């Protein structure tokens, strides 16, 4: 978190200096950063920045629901509904919680994998870049151009005053400059503690403020044991009992997720989702069907699961992983039928998925452990989970 704040401070120095041509003190920078965060908060919740004034960032990244889209949308929350009331996406909106810790998209030469970025395919390097996408996406907020977004900003006297105070009197001299300032402010809000409190029962356990139940303790042991299952292979960054763990490696892998036929029947998509190949920077066919490993923070309250929302229950996800190593795990408990074929077979990372088969009790224990990763503000949502 300290690194993120320092990076944010450095970015603020550069941007503010460029806009105002003045040298600012540390106190002035801190004050203006706070102003950016508050401006970003207002922008994050502003539905007026969508074509029909029905959708804001918070619509698809709801702070009351783990920063995901918890609307039904006619497809059981599998994907988001656009501002036009009819466009339905083909991927679930990733949680904006803890997204600040994702590094910029890059190739890890040591581990020979792509890492970081925003969206399921890392096509944007930063939170600011991600924030700039939805407003002008026809299937999302639907604004015609950056100019029309800026025109909406100018309708609000608070925005006009705040943008000028923070970014300089000439901030509205070009639409590009104004739009960049808007995304910068949203980014600063998304980098506040509100998005990453690290106050779950797991975090409290690390501080000696919570005692694990026997099932949770078993789940913790299993989760961090590479000899038992493959959870830690992709969902551990710092290590067992390390504070500030985000429970993702930020890498990209294909785990053989099947097509969500129910979603495709609604949105009419016929083409295969190529995953990481949707990122303009990637052309190697070996990356076909790979997606960014999501954080497990708040995973128990942010169903449905996988990039396309194909699974409703967290226990189903654990059983899905187990099927690769357990010959008895042949039936999807949600459909009562055999597991569907993967959307992309040829790049499944079977090596990463290798593990010992799990008993039903071990599956229950893993689910119990993942429930521990729920932020305190969402613990009430676990009541019916």
Average pLDDT score: 93
Write the CATH architecture name of the largest domain. Orthogonal Bundle
What is the overall silhouette?
Answer: globular
Give start-end ranges of low-pLDDT stretches.
Answer: 1-14, 16-21
Give the number of helices: 14
The biggest sheet amounts to: 2 strands, antiparallel
Broad structural category: mainly alpha
Radius of gyration over all CA atoms, rounded:
21 Å
Main CATH class of the largest domain: Mainly Alpha
Structural descriptors:
385 residues; mainly alpha; Cytochrome Bc1 Complex, Chain D, domain 2; 2 domains; two-stranded antiparallel sheet; 14 helices; 35% helix; disordered N terminus
Polypeptide structure, described:
A two-stranded antiparallel sheet has the order 1-2. The longest helix is centred in the N-terminal third of the chain and has 19 residues, at 2-20. It has 385 residues and is mainly alpha-helical. The chain is built from 14 helices and six strands. The protein folds into two domains: 2-97 and 127-195, Cytochrome c-like domain (Cytochrome Bc1 Complex, Chain D, domain 2); 201-384, Cytochrome c-like domain (Cytochrome Bc1 Complex, Chain D, domain 2, Orthogonal Bundle), CATH 1.10.760.10.
